[in-house]
Amino acid sequence: MKVLYIAGPFRAPTAWGIECNVRRAEDAAAVLVMEFGIMPMIPHANTRYFHGMGDDSFWIDGTLELMRRCDALYLIDGWEKSSGARGERTEAERLEMPIFTSEDHLRLCRWLP
Questions:
Q1: Tens of pLDDT, residues 65-110
Q2: What's the whole-model pTM score?
Q3: Domain containing residue 52: CATH number
Q4: DSSP readout, 17-30?
Q5: Domain that holds residue 10
Q6: Starting at the edge strand that comes first in sequence, how are the strands of the sheet with 3-7 ordered?
Q7: What dihedral angle (degrees, nearest 10) is formed by the CA atoms of 69, 13, 48, 76?
């Protein structure tokens, strides 16, 4: 089974803004599960209630390590606005990990069985 790391904005000025970002990542993951049978790794959902605990470097380092253990990276809409997602993309490129930006991109690639 393929495991796809979901990257996009997490931080926001309010708790509601964070929750909206988490839900956007979960919505993207639900499509990937239902349509492609891919197991999503959603770091947003793992830490949604940990806001304010620890410093940013702990979370950035930890989520990068989670991503390294996945098969590919999936960037959701708005990822460009997120310094974390931009860093995840840079690391995925360094690792030569497949990077996807849309469902159509997944349909057209040879990465899926």
A1: 999 999 999 999 999 999 999 999 999 999 999 999 988 888 888 7
A2: 0.90
A3: 3.40.50.10400
A4: HHHHHHHHHHHHHH
A5: 3-108
A6: 39-41, 3-7, 72-75, 99-100
A7: -50
